């Protein structure tokens, strides 16, 4: 039993307990699930080494939860969970992933219509049974229908951030094999697309057969589609398909270029080659039959008369034309971030204390972080009101003293934007904060013009620094709310509001095309982890990747500034 299995069971229990309207406990299970998901070590190993005491020493895991984990590890089941399932035998996890379907709704659907899973729900919608139920209306029937379509549409693709641990582990193992000279993950993974269809690996190896044999026999493999000398294709237990190709050294750059894509970039590049009376394919660049280049990608782009194009830009969005004119933007480097301006703690829905988050930030090499817990409207997270946030400031002061400058903790907020565009904290509080971020967490279905007006209204507030996760999308779970991004970008310009590039793998909000639009307007961004636990700071890399996909440069990223420079910028607001 893996950590992810145990985390899923705890999440399910949290949902069941919410259905029964039991206070506090659901949050405890949810937080425990999050903690377990974030653990670097397998619970099985922790337990084998230190028994139940070791489990209890994990933050957020008390005696009761440790006993349950022990039962799961020992017997592979949990009687408590099974009894909850018996009472209400529904696929609670599947139903809860549908946006707009809360625990109470799941209960009503089960009790009144016998809905147990997604398919039942679709049938009930098709039979127009939903809108007549108490607590549902025609609008919610429409929303549910959209929610289901969204979940189904995303099926089959993987979030880059969730798949990356597996991909990197496979990459490392293959690279370490004897006879493997070069190996790169190509395809959409190399272009850092937010979701990936499959994984494309290319390699140079002295004995291709050896690497192919190791590849198809990896413990993660559940199915082998093809096992050849130069090409093999497998499916992993987690559902991900992986292709491996072994390439002659001479063609490595050309193959890497071809299999990195995108297809649109490849086709456009090939056309440019043809104009020069050259032929480009995955084996190299040729004049007639004569090989000109192809060992490295740099060599290829040079031979085509253009600058090297970073993988994140290869979408045929105009990058080839710029490269030909030597005018490519210099993308923000992966090591350029000096701080993080959105961090949650256990004052609301994070799993760790302010101090624990700060220490993790030190490890990540961050010069500063802003603590931005939720505000009171988000009651389920115990959002902060005027009193508690002032109490939090005192704790931040104490933590800063103890840190002795190892990093600096700034006072911030993720302040809710209310329905009318006003903010969830009084002006007097907002004015005293170092970092004021604002977010939409409710009323996702307002008409586009109303939603846009509401957000812009909030942006006009003189204390506001950053619009957090500007479109509210959750990859594979929730479509962005309808909003006029051009108007938001214009407002960001007019009112000097920074737009966030949220680095959480399931948000990556803004998306690449909006980042490009905002870059054209010379807007400032902040790349934030939105960390809810100490391990989440590593997600910042996905935010930088997203920024690079949107052609963002370092001078447009506010948290590439040093602390002193940053504070100067932020203080321009009152
Ligand atoms: P994915 O897997 O859907 O996230 O996206 P990619 O870009 O990894 O696409 P994939 O795995 O189908 O193919 C890998 C690369 O191979 C792709 O980025 C470009 C290249 N490629 C695939 N099919 C074609 C094609 O028909 N023409 C050209 N020019 N290149 C192709
Ligand atoms: Ca692919
Ligand atoms: Ca592929
Ligand atoms: Zn938020």
Automatic annotation (TrEMBL):
SMART domains: POLIIIAc, POLXc. One of its GO terms (cellular component) is cytosol. Residues 1-315 form the DNA-directed DNA polymerase X domain. Pfam families: DNA_pol_B_thumb, HHH_5, HHH_8, PHP. Residues 339-419 form the Polymerase/histidinol phosphatase N-terminal domain. Its EC number is 2.7.7.7. Signal peptide: none annotated. This is DNA-directed DNA polymerase. It comes from Candidatus Kerfeldbacteria bacterium RIFCSPHIGHO2_02_FULL_42_14. The lineage of its organism: Bacteria, Candidatus Kerfeldiibacteriota.
